[in-house]
Amino acid sequence: MPLKADWVKIGLDYVENGKKMAYSFGFNKLGFDMSLGKFMIDSESSLDDFGRLLGYKKNDIIKSINGIEDFV
Q1: Looking at residue 49, what DSSP letter applies?
Q2: CB-based burial label for 42 (10 Å; 0-12, 13-18, 19+)
Q3: pTM of the full structure
Q4: Most buried of the four, 11, 21, 24, 26, by CB within 10 Å?
Q5: 12-64: pLDDT as tens digits
Q6: In angstroms, how far apart are the furthest CA atoms of the chain?
């Protein structure tokens, strides 16, 4: 197993055991609806646990993020 210092040299963070807190909007990638000019959920397989908990479905349009509607 590589040493932590080796991972740091190439810009990765190596954690041997434990959990790391991360932020999530509920999805790993988005599609874009050209006719509406909006981002959308293009695949339910791109949802993480948080997205499934929120009830995101394929073809849902992302109306705003943090109250900002025109983020494109």
Answers
A1: H
A2: middle
A3: 0.60
A4: 26
A5: 777 777 777 778 889 988 899 999 888 999 999 999 999 999 999 999 998 88
A6: 49
